[in-house]
Amino acid sequence: MSDQTIPPKSHGRLSIGATLKPRDLLAEPRVVKGAWTARIITLFPDAFPGTLGLSLTGKALDFGLWRLETIDLRPFGIGKHLNVDDTPAGGGAGMVLRPDVVDAALSAAAESTPPDRARWPVIYLSPRGKPFDQATARRLSACDGITLICGRFEGVDQRVLDHHAVEEISLGDFVLTGGEIAATALIDATVRLIPRVLGNQVSTEEESFSEGLLEFPQYTRPTDWQGRAIPDVLQSGHHANIATWRKAMAERLTKERRPDLWRAYCAAHGRDPIEDQEQ
Questions:
Q1: Which run of H or E residues covers position 141?
Q2: Taking the model in full, what pTM does it have?
Q3: Which of 1, 34, 73, 199 is deepest in the core (most CB within 10 A)?
Q4: Which CATH code is given to the segment(s) 30-191?
């Protein structure tokens, strides 16, 4: 590979270039200074923005509320064929991403980013990582940005992960063919917490996991559908009663479906997890 740094491919409207065409200031896209940025190291840069370019996250990307950059791992490969992987030490099936290749990509991704990992985490999406949750999404949304490594094959050489103090995060106890889908999910969960992305920030405060509970059931029109009616309390107009019902339903669903979350919630609020447990 040459010594030239491979420029990241940017998505959205934050890219700036010279032009001889006069600017239409009324049609000028909004550019937010210091917008939250996701840099993704991947062998498949065309996988992005994917669904991140749709709906509210896509509009926010287009308006410059956040920025997405992909860094193609292949040009950092070694030799004539730009090899990025090699056989695992000690034998075994599959291939492992080389430390020198990933190191070069991480060095390029680190350009113009703060060295403080609290401000700009570097994350490897791995099934052995710490489980991703809403608290992690909130933490990442408060950073300046993140760099994500999308693994392939049997994973990444441990030495480069240690050298760059890479944080490992898992989306669950399952294995994907690569980290691109996991990266999309992590970014979506994080970006929607950035102010102005959803438009109504209150909605994020009532969602599943925001208070450590699953979300209460939701209903809309028609009032009666196939013999199933909306609960009377939701049609009462009594906001205090509605809030009480929603909290009770959230607690009940969490008890029934996620005992692990219920125990953690009770521990945080000084409650007995077996109280009012339905038989």
A1: helix 134-141
A2: 0.85
A3: 73
A4: 3.40.1280.10
